[in-house]
Amino acid sequence: MMKRLTLLAALLCAALTLGGCQSQSNLEYYERAQLYLGSGNYDYAAELFSQLGEYEDSADYALYSRALKALAEEDYELARADLAAVNPFKSSGRYLMYLDAIAAEAEGELEQALSLYEKLGTFCDANLAVERLETAIPEAAIQEGRALMNKGEYEAAREIFLSLDGFGASKALADNCTAAMNRAAYEAAEKLQDAGDLNGAMSAFVAMGDALDAKKRAAECLAAIHAELEKQYAAVTLANAPALMEAYAALDGDETAAARTAELTARFGRNLALITMEHPVLVLGSYPAAENGQEAAIRWQIVKAEDAKLTLLSEQVLDASETAQTVPVVFTEQEAAAAGEVMLPAVAELAALSGLSCGATPYALAQGAAVEDGQAVYWLRDSLENGLHPVISSDGALTLPAAGMTPGIRLMMTLDLEKITFTSGSGTTEDPFRAE
Predict the structure, then answer these.
(1) S-S: 308 plus which of 19, 54, 395, 417, CB 3.0-4.6 Å?
(2) 404 with 288, same domain?
(3) What is the DSSP string of 16-60?
(4) 138 vs 334: CA distance, rounded Å
(5) Do 404 and 286 share a structural domain?
(6) Which phi-psi region, left, alpha or beta, contains residue 386 (left: φ > 0; alpha: ψ -120 to 50)?
(7) Cβ distance 91 to 122 under 8 Å?
């Protein structure tokens, strides 16, 4: 209270002096006000500058002094308003940055506050704030990490602790997070194994590296997977070969799996291509093909594939006959074991083909097969109510044979891929699949 009365008396004296003592110049009072400002007597300085009115930059000094008084009294709103009004006068800009730093710190934006304090250097003892925040920031991070740990968010917490480069207890806390994550991963892997997902369990154990006994458990899973796959390998068929090959392929980098995959590819690779390609060509059986009757291998086009059961259609008319009949095909012992009934084609079975026209072998032509523009007419096994058999004309249309015409014989047959293995060829007319 006494200090306040003294200040008021001084201000009154200054006012009387300014109003009544004309012998003293404005410069003297201007300099005196600056001395008060420099000594931190912001209130007295502001009053003196206000009394000077428009002299020099007294008006700016008056606001500037009032702002510093407000700042000292932690009236940051008033301080900011006055400093903004006179900026860039004197150190207004730096004080405004200082206020920004104080506001950022108050709002919990510690990193931002630290950055601002660092830019200010020793201004307003900002260096002391830097020292304070350099300790407060990692301590706040540790508290944040602990809170995440309490919620079970160990990975996020661990990232925070590792970012602190060993500050305080951060390393020990990071290790605790790692241990908790390993325990959780281990339990999850065990659940997968208990549920029968051996591949998933193995991958989960492998991902854990050297933690706990994960390597041993991963090896146990792999052994169990191999045992199960070996059972399937012993009874593999064309139908389940793709799934088995996929299962072995999932064991990427495993030598045993790679060897089994190679064996299955050699054994079933082309057979699988036969049922997945669109109308590939294969060679099977033989029949006279040359004009003199010399036999040659028959090329067949796959019309339909149902699992391992194929429906084949000869690429050409092989013979000719005045009646709808088949002809005998010569098969090897291996081919005969897989070959089904040889017959004439039916319209319904040809529906999958985009074109029904075909040529004829020299032998068929020698037997009188009807041909027009290089395309042959051939019998179908379908029969009408009157007993007549229709034919496919040279332009691929369904019709009846003309009087005196000798239609060709184009064969159709079934084949069981489970009983024969094709080992060469690419499935084209020039390079058909072959069982050798």
Answers:
(1) 417
(2) yes
(3) HHHHH-TTS-HHHHHHHHHHHHHTT-HHHHHHHHHHTTTSTTHHH
(4) 79
(5) yes
(6) alpha
(7) no
Residues 292 and 405 in one domain: yes
Both 244 and 311 in a single domain? no
Q: Is the pLDDT of residue 301 over 60?
A: yes
Residue 92 is encoded by which pair of tokens? 């207004």
Contacts of 393 (CB under 8 A, 6+ apart): 377, 399
Residue showing tokens 């940055």: 97
Q: What are the pLDDT digits (tens) for 116-149? A: 999 999 999 999 999 999 888 899 889 999 999 9
Residue type, 345: P
Q: Is residue 214 part of a domain?
A: no
Q: Do 330 and 404 belong to one domain?
A: yes
Q: Which of the four pLDDT bands, split at 50, 70 and 90, describes residue 299?
A: very high
Helical H runs in 235-318? 241-249, 255-276
Q: Is residue 283 part of a domain?
A: yes
Q: What are the tens digits of pLDDT across the range 341-387?
A: 999 999 999 988 889 999 999 999 999 999 999 999 999 999 988 88
The per-residue pLDDT of the chain, averaged, comes to: 90
Last residue of a domain, one of 253, 276, 299: 276
How many domains are there within the chain? 2
Report how far residue 158's alpha carbon sits from residue 68's, in angstroms, rounded to the nearest whole number. Answer: 44
For strand 295-306 and strand 391-392, is the pairing parallel, antiparallel, or unpaired? Answer: unpaired
DSSP-derived secondary structure for 164-232: TTT-TTHHHHHHHHHHHHHHHHHHHHHHHHHTT-HHHHHHHHHHTTTSTTHHHHHHHHHHHHHHHHHHH
Q: What pLDDT score was predicted for residue 24?
A: 57
Residue 402 confidence (pLDDT) above 70: yes
Under 8 Å between Cβ of 182 and 205: no
Banded pLDDT at 17 (limits 50, 70, 90): very low
Q: Are residues 265 and 391 in the same domain?
A: no
Place of tokens 């000094």: 61
- The CA-CA-CA angle for residues 371, 360, 380, to 5°, reads 80
Q: Which amino acid is at 22?
A: Q
Q: What is the mean pLDDT of residues 305-326?
A: 94
331 lies in which domain range?
A: 279-419
Same domain, 255 and 348: no
Is residue 241 in some structural domain?
yes
Residues 271 and 283 in one domain: no
Task: Assess if residue 253 is contained within a domain.
Answer: yes
Structure tokens at 297: 């291998």
From 358, 350, 345, select the one nearest 389 (Cα to Cα). 345
